[in-house]
Design goal:
The protein has 13 helices and 13 strands. The chain is of the alpha/beta class. It has two domains: about 15-30 and about 255-350, Alpha-Beta Complex (Aspartate Aminotransferase, domain 1); about 35-255, Aspartate Aminotransferase, domain 2, CATH 3.40.640.
Length: about 350
């Protein structure tokens, strides 16, 4: 009888809490207002012939290379960040070799590494979710083939200093060091193009967050040109659809749309963190488009009461070290103000008290 590989049989499947998502969606770190109007205009101008042709990824890679200031042979467009992770694991990991992941973090690191047959070594983040660089260094062996780092991290918003990432990469030249910069636009610091000095470094980005293209599934994986040749061997030439490739240039051209959205998000992040301070609610300072906070016994009631007001927030209790924690996405100013107004009402109903101004 046909049987899946043991690595797949023992995988823990990831189930995003989709269901009914009507309302203000502050639960998945999506762009809260959508994509640039230029993208919508490009969509309206597509015709049947556009959809009948096989997609030409090469043209999109020209545009993205110019936009990011890297060489075309240093990048590969991917079907979201997920495919980038999948390709790295499938290209560099042999069954039984090791992958290092610091938790909590993006679940797909572990899932794709285990699917490739890796032994995943999970290391707990330090106090305040600080990245445990010295512990990671101590766990590197000749069998280490992947170290995956989300920077900023999801769900914590924590940031790993770039110098520490380089230190890890140099300590493990036999391993692929994947830096997932999905939230780069809200942070502004990048390892791009450090792979020219340290050839085992790879950087992935997504156009799902700041650009509002989550539904089109467009990402980019960058690295040393010789290593990117290996990744192209494992990639389908038609991994992106024609609609995504047609819309990508329009999204990249509208820099004002992205910069305005990022500015609103950063303002909202600061306002939310200040609001949580005023209620004595513990949170972790974030470099991304979201904030993680601890609510204890109020966690689930808060989520339910916000949902009843048409606002969705994310329960992260199942993540390592995040029991009774809620993650909230920020977006445009109007949505941020609606969030704060309802958050104050729910906190008051739950019996929380604000600090008295002196």
């Amino acid at each position: 009888m046909l049987k899946a590989r043991e690595a797949v049989l023992t995988l823990t499947e990831y189930h995003p809490p989709l269901g009914n998502r009507e309302g203000l969606r502050l639960d998945f770190n999506e762009n809260t207002v959508g994509c640039s109007p230029r993208v919508l205009e490009r969509l309206r101008n597509l015709d049947g012939e556009d959809l009948a042709r096989y997609p030409v990824r090469d043209l999109g890679e020209d545009v993205v290379a110019r936009h990011l200031g890297v060489r075309k042979d240093e990048l590969l467009l991917t079907n979201g960040t997920d495919e980038a992770i999948h390709l790295i694991c499938g290209t560099y990991i042999e069954p039984g070799e090791n992958a290092i992941v610091v938790v909590p973090t993006f679940a797909m690191f572990r899932i794709y590494a285990e699917a490739a047959g890796a032994r995943v070594i999970e290391i707990a983040a330090g106090e305040t979710f600080k990245y445990p660089t010295q512990t990671v260094l101590s766990r590197i062996t000749e069998s280490t083939r992947l170290i995956a780092i989300a920077n900023p991290n999801n769900p914590t918003g924590a940031f790993v200093p770039l110098s520490e990432i380089e230190q890890i990469a140099r300590a493990a030249p036999q391993a692929a060091i994947l830096i997932d910069e999905a939230y780069f636009e809200f942070c502004g610091e990048t390892m791009l193009p450090k792979w020219r000095d340290v050839p085992n470094i790879f950087v992935s980005r997504t156009f799902s967050k700041a650009y509002g293209l989550a539904g089109l599934r467009i990402g980019v994986l960058m690295g040393n040109a010789e290593q990117m040749k290996m990744l192209r061997r494992a990639s389908s030439p038609y991994n992106l659809n024609s609609v995504a490739l047609a819309c990508l240039p329009a999204a990249l051209e509208d820099r004002e749309f992205v910069s305005n959205y990022v500015a609103d998000t950063e303002d909202g992040r600061r306002e939310l963190e200040s609001e949580l301070d005023s209620w004595n609610v513990r949170y972790w300072p974030s470099r991304a488009n979201f904030v993680l906070m601890y609510l204890g016994e109020n966690c689930r009631p808060f989520i339910q009461q916000m949902r009843s007001r048409g606002i969705l927030v994310r329960d992260r209790s199942s993540d390592h070290g995040c029991k009774d924690c809620v993650r909230i996405t920020l977006g445009i100013r109007e949505h941020n103000q609606r969030l704060l107004s309802n958050l104050r009402e729910v906190f008051s109903e739950r019996g929380l008290r604000q600090k008295v101004a002196r």
